[in-house]
UniProtKB/TrEMBL annotation:
GO terms for biological process: isoprenoid biosynthetic process. This is Polyprenyl synthetase family protein. It comes from Fundicoccus ignavus. Keywords: Magnesium, Metal-binding, Transferase. InterPro entries: Isoprenoid_synthase_dom_sf (IPR008949), Polyprenyl_synt (IPR000092), Polyprenyl_synt_CS (IPR033749).
Length: 325
């Protein structure tokens, strides 16, 4: 199944079914149980936002989507899934996309190697579209930046002195680069200049920043049944995101509400922390960052293309980000 957000875009919806088929057909893990688990992730109710954006940007230049672009979209999704599996090991998360994590059904070590396999697998899928890029593919560079962002996040775990500037740099690599890779790769076309494709890259970067900051808000405001992951999971794992970092920078923030590694939080302690954050209006401030990044993205999109398909992309973003433009 493909997520319901794509029903208004039937050509993209059909293409995403093809993307999933490519992922299943090309997967080559010898362990049946690990292979089946990865297939379960692939078929779980994820939105495939990054792959869909890649295809929507491709529609700006292609009347019919070439199969190479489908391989690119598949590679993007496998790169994303690799980071999710690695994240869940580090975060000790039980579930992802409504299913039990691979590290829970198997082991941490198997999950790490499975994530590593998916990194290599994504590269193999990207190479299927190499002729579209004429030596200008950035998937290897993007993979480096994503993993560098993951390292930064791990090093900043339980770090109360992290600044909002450091955090924004961290998520630029950890999350936003993958969106930028999607929009950039989607513009791979013989008649699209490298300059134009770089413009698409920065559109994706702004979208990715807004997406991650929205996810930060979701962690505090939406329960597990709606978000697919436990509420306030990040702070319990020592991953300090924008709302908390903004509060920690206030002189009268009560740092005693934070705990060191290994502490098991009670519901009352989590409630106390949220009450403390509300004192500093950090959720509104984070929302301000989201709007700023989205406005930058929309401004760049208006300059990039006046075609109807660009309005479709804006409409999709309003649904995914739950905002009116």
């Amino acid at each position: 199944m493909v997520h319901a957000i794509w029903r208004n875009y039937p050509e993209i919806e059909t293409a995403l079914y093809d993307v999933k088929k490519i992922i299943h057909d090309e997967l080559a893990i010898s362990s049946p149980s690990v292979s089946n688990k990865i297939r379960e992730y692939v078929d779980a109710p994820g939105k495939y936002t990054r792959a869909g954006l890649c295809l929507m940007f491709a529609k700006l230049n292609y009347k019919k989507l070439p199969k190479e672009i489908l391989y690119v979209a598949a590679g993007i999704e496998m790169l994303h899934l690799a980071t999710l599996i690695h994240d869940d090991v580090i975060d000790e998360a039980d579930n992802r996309r409504g299913i039990q994590g691979l590290h829970k059904t198997h082991s941490n070590r198997i999950a790490i190697y499975a994530g590593d396999y998916l990194l290599a697998y994504s590269g193999r899928l990207f190479k299927k579209a190499h002729k579209l890029f004429e030596g200008d593919s950035i998937d290897d560079w993007a993979m480096e930046r994503i993993l560098d962002g993951e390292i930064s996040q791990l090093q900043n775990q339980f770090e109360p002195s992290i600044s909002i500037y450091q955090y924004l740099r961290q998520i630029r690599g950890k999350t936003a680069i993958l969106f930028a890779l999607a929009t950039y790769s989607g513009t791979a076309h013989p008649e699209v200049s490298r300059f134009k494709r770089r413009q698409a890259f920065y559109i994706g970067l702004e979208i990715g920043m807004a997406f991650q900051l929205t996810d930060d808000l979701i962690d505090y405001k939406i329960d597990q049944t709606a978000s697919g992951k436990p509420q306030l999971q990040d702070v319990q794992n020592g991953i300090y995101t924008a709302p908390l970092i903004l509060a920690m920078q206030e002189n009268d923030f009560n740092h005693s509400l934070l705990f060191s590694r290994g502490h098991l939080w009670s519901e009352n302690q989590l409630d106390d922390l949220v009450m403390e954050l509300n004192k500093f209006e950090v959720f509104d401030k984070t929302e301000g960052f989201v709007k700023a990044y989205l406005n930058k993205a929309l401004s760049k999109m208006d300059k990039f293309s006046k075609r109807k398909e660009m309005n479709d992309i804006k409409e999709l973003l309003s649904v995914v980000m739950k905002r009116n433009f």
